[in-house]
Design brief:
This is Cleavage stimulation factor subunit 77 isoform X2. By secondary structure, this protein is an all-alpha fold. Helix content is 62%, strand content 0%.
Length: 599
């Protein structure tokens, strides 16, 4: 029972699968032996079990993101591989945080186990190998780090990064011979060694064995077929900066100049070295020698450096002379060399700028760069000339070269031949028929600003009520009008009534309140008035109604009341129509009706 208890107690504090079931089995086991003893043991191991269960759930989230069926292949840059790399990095970071709060030795074992698992899938990833080795080195296990580097070089024999990191580790712990052996394995017989490997080995020999060893290897390295001007520059700057031997550095640069006179990069590095010596005479001589041998298309940066040198060391006459020579030399490379020879405002900007200080704003720099591009392409024929170039090429005829701008080689413009002028009346759908009118009635075809004849024909073919409704709709610029606003317009519009009998007239509804029957009966008292007076009042009332627009009327608030008001208006209008057809004194009665509604 003691052995079983120890096994249970180890299992319930370990974050593993089915830890909850193990805890229940452990409780049953203790209770089956002694309930009094079980109470104390369960309360003692309850916090440890809770911690193990929390760590298990957290670790399970990271493990579930890993594809355990992934093959160990070199990285191709796919999204799946990147996601797996990120999942392993998260799991490694989780294990390094020691979430179980165990001792350092046990935690290191878990981290080593996780790294070994990771390398089973990310075997060809040099960053995982480097991180694994550096973790061992930081933990104090240098021998384990060396073994990891050796395994990494077997897995990735062509990785120079891992070789430099391995040599750095050996050199940092004082094993210079082991580090030198790493460099020698990288160089091989020297036929396939890169220029960078030569430079790094020269620096290592300078640190470990001294100046003479480095100089001796440089003499051998310059005979290699893969030796570039970078090796000369590195050895010369090492002699100048570390050995404080300017004469030796100058001799190395001169020796390299005989071999790399055609390399603009080497000329610029040699000029920078002479800058540090403040040797303006040799700098000017170097530029003259280099520019006489370099082809024009490769001498752009050298001419730029030469002009900057004259701006610093020369006077105004020498500056202008060098700039003119630069234009003459570079004009041979372009299709149109006449514009290159002309002076431009960009030359002034180049002469009078210093570091990040400019004699103009950034907008001016962009404008000058645009002018330069236009000037270069001013005479080029295109199949479809764009509007921007045609408009600007007449005024912008010449410009210089701005040192800090690189205009695009090709600018794409939209096809303006397919553009149409925007016209709200060309809108498709029912909203296109909605033409605002001040009077609320259909506009005639002869009025100014009215719709076209085709629109008038469409409106005339509609029923009167529907045509009046369409005319009162506002012009909407959009696919979906506001339904509530359209309903409010319908409720406030003076839509003509449909005629019930042939020969009877229809009158528009009045916007005011409907007159009552008592108002009509009271109007009989004024039947002795003149008929012309009633007609004049009727005409004035109609003009007032027509002058009121939809916008000036308040929006309805109670739809039910508005409907009841419309029913009252319809009933009143029917009575007025019947009195008009059957009574000879309709004029005075209608006048009294209108007067009552107005009052």
């Amino acid at each position: 029972m003691t052995s079983v208890r120890k096994a249970y107690q180890r299992a319930i504090v370990t974050p593993t699968h089915h830890v909850e079931q193990l805890w229940r089995d452990y409780e049953n086991f203790e209770n089956s032996i002694s309930r009094a003893l079980a109470k104390g043991l369960v309360s003692e191991y309850q916090p440890k079990y809770n911690s193990a269960r929390a760590v298990y759930r957290e670790r399970k989230k990271y493990i579930d993101e890993i594809d355990w069926n992934m093959l160990a292949i070199p990285p191709s840059g796919s999204s799946k591989e990147e996601m797996q790399w990120m999942a392993w990095k998260r799991l490694l970071a989780f294990e390094k945080a020691n979430p179980q709060r165990i001792d350092s030795a046990s935690a290191n074992k878990r981290i080593v186990f996780t790294y070994e698992q990771c390398l089973m899938y990310l075997y060809h990833y040099p960053d995982i190998w480097y991180e694994y080795a550096t973790w061992h080195a930081k933990a104090g296990s240098i021998d384990s780090a060396i073994k990891v580097f050796q395994r990494a070089l077997k897995a990735l024999p062509d990785s120079e990064m891992l070789r430099y990191a391995y040599a750095e580790l050996e050199e940092s712990r004082g094993a210079l011979q082991a580090a030198k052996k790493v460099y020698e394995n990288l160089l091989g017989d020297g036929s396939n060694a890169s220029a960078l490997s030569h430079i790094q080995f020269i620096r290592f020999l300078r640190r470990s064995e001294g100046v003479e060893a480095a100089r001796k290897y440089f003499l051998d390295a310059r005979k290699s077929p893969n030796c570039t001007y970078h090796v000369y520059v590195a050895h010369a700057m090492m002699a100048f900066c570390l050995d404080k031997d300017a004469k030796m550095a100058h001799n190395v640069f001169e020796a390299g100049l005989k071999r790399f006179m055609h390399e603009p990069g080497y000329i610029l590095e040699y000029a920078d070295f002479l800058y540090r010596l403040n040797d303006d005479r040799n700098i000017r001589a170097l530029f003259e020698r280099a520019l006489s041998s370099l082809p024009p298309e490769e001498s752009v940066e050298v001419w730029k450096k030469f002009t900057q040198f004259e701006q610093t060391y020369g006077d105004l006459a020498s500056m202008l002379k060098v700039e003119q020579r630069r234009k003459e030399a570079l004009s041979r490379t372009g299709d149109d060399g006449t514009s290159e020879l002309e002076s431009s405002l960009q030359d002034v900007v180049s002469r009078y700028s210093f570091m990040d200080l400019w004699p103009c704003s950034s907008n001016d720099l962009d404008h000058l760069a645009r002018q330069e591009w236009l000037a270069r392409n001013i005479n080029k024929k295109t199949d479809k000339p764009t509007l921007g170039i045609e408009a600007g090429s007449a005024d912008k005829t010449s410009s210089g070269v701005l040192s800090n701008t690189n205009p695009p080689a090709k600018v794409v413009y939209p096809d303006t031949s397919k553009m149409t002028i925007y016209d709200p009346r060309q809108m498709s759908g029912p909203a296109a028929l909605a033409v605002p009118s001040a009077s609320g009635t259909l506009p005639c075809s002869g009025s100014s600003g009215g719709p076209p004849n085709a629109l008038n024909d469409i409106l005339k073919s509609l029923p009167p009520a529907f045509a009046a409704f369409m005319a009162n709709l506002p012009a909407v610029e959009g696919p979906t009008p506001d339904a509530d606003f359209v309903i409010s317009v319908c409720l406030q519009s003076n839509i003509p009534l449909a005629t019930g009998k042939s020969g009877t007239a229809s009158f528009p509804l009045q916007s005011g309140p409907a007159p009552s029957t008592s108002d009509i009966s009271d109007s009989s008292k004024f039947r002795s008035r003149d008929r012309q007076t009633g007609k004049r009042k009727d005409m004035d009332r109609q003009k007032d109604d027509e002058s009121s627009t939809v916008q000036s009327q308040p929006l309805p608030r109670d739809v039910f009341k508005i409907r009841q008001l419309q029913k009252t208006r319809v009933a009143s209008s029917s009575r007025v129509t019947s009195s008009y057809t059957g009574s000879a004194s309709y004029g005075s009665a209608l006048s009294g009706d209108l007067s009552g509604s107005t009052g």
